[in-house]
Amino acid sequence: MITLALWIVAGYALAALAVHGLYRRSLNHSAAGERRFVHYVLVTRNHGRQLEWYLRAISWYAKLSSKPHLVTLVDEHSEDDTLAIAERMNRAEGMELQVIRFSGELSREDLAQHSPELEQEGFLFIDLRKPGEAAKIPYVHVV
Asked: How far is CA 70 from CA 43, 66, 89, 97, in A?
């Protein structure tokens, strides 16, 4: 009986040490300057029918990975309800969403010149105007 009690106490002690070790390791990673968030840059034009799903997928992935996320939506003169959906999702999900209206061709280099801080932070550039680019978004499968 005493042997069993000692094994139980030893198990709890090892579990407590493991939790403390993992916590200390997470503090060291954040102090070392590891990027603790994900930044998505979505380029859209008349993507009102898909945008809500894309933003929800990003939000779910961020919640599951427990990393904060930032979404920058670069819109090229959408004529549908793309911007209205983005505004509604910003309020509903509480995600940090920034909308930039842009006209003309946009490349990764153009965006880096437009916002140099984005290049330093590192970001995932997804041009939804190109077929198959949406597959870069977690939980989105393009056929």
From this structure: 14, 13, 13, 6
